[in-house]
Amino acid sequence: MSKSERPSDTSFRRTWDRTEYAAKAAERESQIKSENKARFEAKSQGKKYHPRASTPPDAKETVSRAARLDVSAN
Question: Does the pTM exceed 0.70?
């Protein structure tokens, strides 16, 4: 039995899709580039850059009421 006929002992390892990770890296680099541009623009205006946090999907539940709550009706 030669070495090429034996099953590989690393067959359990995950295979990496290089194109997927290249796309993720390109997206991350574009995000970093746009953030750096925003930082530069804020600094040139004499302001401090504050990154905006992403809005959670359930943000509608935390919106304030449009009308006042009438507690004396009960």
Answer: no
